[in-house]
Amino acid sequence: MPYHYSGNTQVEITTLLYEFLADTAVVYYKTHAFHWNVEGNNFYGLHLMFEKFYTELWESMDEIAERIRALGEKAPPSYAELLKHASIKETEAFPIGQIMVQQLRADYLELAKKAEEVAAFADAHGDLATTDMMSERISLLTKASWMLQSLAIS
Ligand SMILES: [Fe+2]
Questions:
Q1: Rounded distance, CA 139 to CA 154, Å?
Q2: 133 CA to middle of ligand 1, Å?
Q3: How many domains does the chain have?
Q4: 86 with 23: CB under 8 angstroms?
Q5: What is the pLDDT of residues 117-132, one digit of tens each?
Q6: What confidence tens digit (pLDDT) does each residue in 50-103 have?
Q7: CATH number at residue 110
Q8: How many angstroms does the Cα of residue 56 sit away from the middle of ligand 1?
Q9: CA neighbours within 13 Å on the CB side: how many for 57?
Q10: Is 2 domain-assigned?
């Protein structure tokens, strides 16, 4: 292993990344489903905005999973296995557009908070690559949250 921190630390970091990947998968799918199911006057704007967000979330899943591999652990083999590790809740509902905006904003902030926790742990153990990746997640998630918040006020 090309790292100077202990095997135990690597396991702890990959466990945190696995949970973060699971929560990202939940939020990714929710955003994509809202892209499909949104209705009403704001349809096209929300449809496009949700697409921008789910595309970025999907791409981030690739980065997170590959970081898990780089740290020597396996990426999840199935959605079912992955989702066992999620703490953010899925939705079965078809809310109106404004509620979709509120729900996604709450989820993005929750995900950003989790990214801060992963970053703090990784940073404390000298894993700068994971810290850097999580910092980028925090930036993008809080930016998306701001965009949704701006939409809710208008
Ligand atoms: Fe689409």
A1: 23
A2: 27
A3: 1
A4: yes
A5: 999 999 999 999 999 9
A6: 999 999 999 999 999 999 999 999 999 999 999 999 999 999 999 999 999 999
A7: 1.20.1260.10
A8: 14
A9: 28
A10: no
Domain that holds residue 68: 7-84+93-153
Centroid of ligand 1 to alpha carbon of 140 (angstroms): 21
Q: Which of 25, 42, 34, 50 is nearest to 144 (CA)?
A: 50
Is 45 within the bounds of a domain? yes
Provide the mean pLDDT of the chain: 94
* Residue 139 included in any domain: yes
pLDDT value for 51 = 98
Helix, strand, or coil here: 77?
Answer: coil
35 C-alpha to center of ligand 1: Å? 7
Q: 77 alpha carbon to ligand 1 midpoint, in Å?
A: 26
Q: How far is the CA of 89 from the centre of ligand 1 (A)?
A: 23
Sequence-separated (6 or more) residues with CB below 8 Å from residue 68: 14, 17, 18, 21, 74, 75
CA of 95 to the centre of ligand 1 (A): 18
Flag whether 1 is in a domain.
Answer: no
pLDDT above 80: residue 5: no
Distance 70 CA to ligand 1 centre (A): 32
pLDDT tier at 3 (50, 70, 90 boundaries)? low
